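Have a think about this chain, tokens included, and walk me through the fold.
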Amino acid sequence: MSKYFKKYKSFNYTEPYKGNKNNILVIGDIHAPFTHKEYLQFCRHQQEVFDCGQVIFIGDIVDFHYSSFHNTDPDGLSAGDEAEEAQQQLEEWYQMFPNATVTVGNHDLIMYRKMFASGLSRIYARTWNEMFHAPKGWTFVDKIIVNNVMYTHGVSNALKRMKESRISVVQGHLHSLQYVQRSQSEVNNLYAIQTGCGIDDEAFAFAYNKPFNAKPIIGCAVVLDKGKLPIIITL
């Protein structure tokens, strides 16, 4: 195990990494444009340390603060400015990870939920790739199962989802949780992962966390050797 762990330093990666397709890098919620300034390089570093050839974003790649159901900061960004800054930030992720799967999160869905509430048909909506100008190598799904492990953004915690689904689960959504927990029975060995996240807690978009003193855990996860070895890493 020790061969995997190398202390993170602020490396300056500029190129994608191919890696072993049997190893998966799982990137937590980034909430562009309100992403931790070191998170991109941190995730890219872990991809190389753990030789990951697959990349899964666990959801909430954008925040949509201006249009969210939380109170909008009147001194924050306008809808247009936020969208422009999010797009600029996402371009850096596209360059580093040109091929990825995104499990769609609740913040990613805000635009569709707003349209539904307004009585507009989804025929008028753009696709995820069109909305975020994502490269062709990015695929957006509700959930994905790889090597008998379910990857999903989630709403409840991963351990609860694992017990209900009876399948190993990797999940995001809960910024203040990061863990790996196993469940052994006579017929299977399951695990639940909460990935941590990649948000900038000082951004005005996360003011709703302050009354609860809910500090985020900045980190990601990797699932190695065809789903057999789950690991969490913290920045």
Observations:
- The first strand starts at residue 20 and ends at 27.
